[in-house]
Design goal:
Number of strands: 0
Shape: globular
Low-confidence stretches: 1-6
Radius of gyration: 19 Å
CATH architecture: Orthogonal Bundle
Number of helices: 11
CATH class: Mainly Alpha
CATH superfamily: Tetracycline Repressor, domain 2
Length: 216
């Protein structure tokens, strides 16, 4: 048995059932966001889509906003893998993060805008929005990666950049991370689902990197 198979076998049927319910509700929210605003979507509608009761919903989540955070946490696992750190340069990793975010924004502009808005208002998400081990195994059966915040992905990339001399040793790490995080969350708010999002992301990254004396 592989390590993933060992972990999967350790997850109980009850945990799997709960994970399927939670993921189903999140996916229902994503489908509805293609035609409705987040405010228009009700918990009752989401429950009807997944065939569960409203009390069941609130057994799993404190509010429908938790579904946004759950999506981001699961999406971060994909981004962590896609960035390829530390096998690619830090600049390439960040460019990939921004490009994939722009593509996601173009597909679901309402989703990214709601995520940005929610995280500005509630920087500390509810515990019920944290993916469970069963959810990670169901959504990513071949991956052994844990969720990470977008900020932590950027922090890791900057640390690698300094260690590999892509950026000067004098780089003020926290300040650079804050600027790149502002770029990450600001572009969807500015451009929504426009195709300008990717161009703005990559131009912004290039300008910041060059301004730091970085090597791309």
């Amino acid at each position: 048995m592989t390590n993933n198979q060992d972990q999967s076998a350790a997850i109980s049927l009850r945990e799997r059932k709960a994970a399927r319910t939670r993921l189903g509700l999140m996916d229902a929210m994503l489908r509805r966001l293609r035609k409705q605003t987040f405010e228009e979507i009700s918990v009752k509608e989401l429950c009807a889509d997944v065939d569960v009761s409203e009390p069941t919903f609130f057994n799993h989540f404190s509010s429908k906003h938790d579904l946004l955070v759950l999506y981001v946490r699961l999406w971060s696992v994909e981004m962590k893998q896609a960035m390829g750190m530390p096998k690619t340069t830090a600049y390439e990793s960040l460019a990939r993060l921004f490009s994939l975010t722009a593509q996601a924004t173009e597909r679901l502009p309402r989703l990214m805008q709601e995520i940005v808005s929610y995280q500005m208002r509630f920087p500390v998400p509810a515990k019920s929005a944290t993916p469970t081990k069963a959810e990670l195994m169901l959504r990513f059966p071949s991956l052994a990666s844990a969720p990470a915040s977008i900020r932590s992905l950027i922090e890791t990339a900057i640390d690698i950049a300094v260690a590999n001399r892509e950026l000067p040793e004098t780089t003020e790490r926290d300040a650079v991370v804050s600027v790149l995080a502002a770029l990450f969350f600001g572009v969807p708010a500015l451009h929504g689902g426009s195709r300008l999002a990717e161009k703005t992301y990559l131009s912004g990254l290039r300008l910041i990197w060059r301004g730091l004396g970085g090597r791309a």
